[in-house]
Write a structure and sequence with these properties.
about 110 residues; mainly alpha; 5 helices; globular
């Protein structure tokens, strides 16, 4: 099971990776290509799902946090040491902390824009 310091680092990594995927300009061309792909067939449910996923910090953050956690657990040799349910709880903790960081960032951004 991961400790609090690992949770903080993984949550920070999840927060930053989510910001990169959803907001940062470096991935704007990739997001633009997906939006163009969706615009060619806007009634497509799979395309709508993909656009919703890449536009939502909470949706994208969930999956990114899971990928970061699994990578960390495998790289550090901690995957086999705990039951799958424990890893599920770790995923919830990392994703929740990442979402909290995104919420704070959004709130501070709204406050400074006033």
């Amino acid at each position: 099971m991961i400790g609090v310091p690992e949770l903080v680092v993984l949550a920070a990594a999840g927060y930053r990776a989510t910001q990169l995927a959803v907001h940062d300009t470096i991935l704007e061309p990739a997001r633009g290509a997906v939006f163009d792909w969706h615009a060619r067939k806007p009634d497509s449910k799979p395309r709508e799902f993909v656009v919703s996923l890449i536009s939502c910090v909470y949706c994208m953050g969930w999956w990114i946090s899971g990928a970061i956690l699994v990578t960390w657990l495998l790289a550090s040799g901690q995957w086999d040491g705990s039951p799958l349910a424990v890893h599920g709880m770790e995923w919830l903790a990392v994703a929740g902390a990442s979402v909290f960081m995104n919420r704070v960032d959004d709130t501070l951004g709204d406050l400074t824009a006033r």
